[in-house]
Design goal:
Elements (H helix, E strand, L loop, with lengths): L1 H16 L3 E3 L2 H9 L6 E4 L23 H6 L4 E4 L4 H9 L3 E4 L5 H14 L3 H16 L9 E6 L9 E3 L5 H8 L3 E2 L10 E2 L1 H7 L3 E5 L10 H5 L8 H4 L3 E4 L11 H20 L1
Parallel strand pairs: 1-2, 1-3, 3-4, 5-7, 5-9, 9-10
Antiparallel strand pairs: 5-6, 6-8
Helix pairs in contact: 5-6, 6-11
């Protein structure tokens, strides 16, 4: 009886280890690789570029418009995806392809999703290690500076005339700001990444502005070009020179590499502290 049970467990674990995984977002793809299950990934989305091994994987298109023909040609046994494409998920269910849907918009969702993915892929220890590293990084932010109004801006913007996308209060960026003892300069119920115009920016008057410009280098846009449009605004952060640039790709991807962004965010806060301590 004991031998039979062990045999069943062995066969079950072997089947799990041979899972053919399709990852339908760059963040999910990065997490699967970080968990140590990268060898099971058979395909991913167009913009999944990390780790380097992911660049060699077959691409099935964008998240909202993947090619079903390409997906089926990869014969996946498990599709890991985010919850904002219910029609696609229903299609997979009709085709008898297993799905795992994980939200990665807020910090609590990211941590919970890493844990869920770890359990599903039998990588629980790896998942707990990643979660611990992110929590440790968050804890390191406390007390650097406090009670500052911080605005996080997305994109390599060389003009502010058409509005800019910023971090709202329902994203993990807002939670990171609050974990540091500061507050999001944008106090609004608008979800996602609200678009602000010049008048909105002037009204917010943040203490610190952080530009997440991961695409700037690829577009040939330098630091001066990113800062130039802000200099025309009568903002506290502009007058004090407290506009900072984070140009790493991981700053825009809620994966295990979130700890790297948190570290960079901490470096910004420390730079602000040292400047204003003089």
């Amino acid at each position: 009886m004991r031998v039979a049970i062990l045999t069943i467990l062995f066969l079950w674990s072997t089947l799990s280890a041979s899972e053919r995984i399709l990852t339908l977002s760059p963040a999910i793809n990065e997490i699967v690789f970080a968990l140590g299950a990268g060898e099971q990934v058979v395909g991913t989305t167009t913009y999944a570029a990390y780790p380097p091994a992911a660049q060699k994987l077959p691409k099935v298109g964008g998240y909202f418009s993947p090619s079903l023909e390409k997906i089926l040609s990869l014969d996946p046994t498990l599709v890991i995806m985010q919850p904002n494409n219910q029609k696609l998920e229903a299609t997979f269910q009709t085709l008898k392809i297993s799905t795992l849907t994980v939200p990665i918009d807020t910090l609590s969702h990211i941590l919970a999703s890493i844990e869920v993915m770890g359990k599903r892929l039998h990588k629980e220890k790896e998942a707990q290690r990643i979660i611990s590293e992110i929590r440790t990084a968050l804890a390191s932010l406390k007390g650097i500076v406090t009670d500052k109004r911080i605005l996080i801006v997305f994109g390599a913007n060389t003009t502010l005339e058409h509005g800019i996308f910023v971090a709202g209060q329902n994203l993990y960026y807002d939670e990171i700001i609050r974990a540091s003892g500061n507050q999001n300069a944008l106090q609004s119920k608008r979800k996602g990444q609200p678009v602000l115009g010049r008048e909105n920016l002037i009204a917010l008057d943040p203490d610190i502005i952080i530009l997440l410009s991961a695409t700037a280098k690829a577009k040939g846009i330098g630091k001066e070009a990113l800062l130039a449009p802000w200099r025309a605004l009568p903002l506290r952060a502009v007058r004090n020179g407290d506009i900072y640039i984070i140009d790493k790709a991981y700053a825009l991807i809620p994966s295990d590499r979130l700890r790297y962004f948190i570290h960079d965010f901490g470096e910004v806060l420390d730079g602000y502290r040292r400047k204003h301590a003089q």
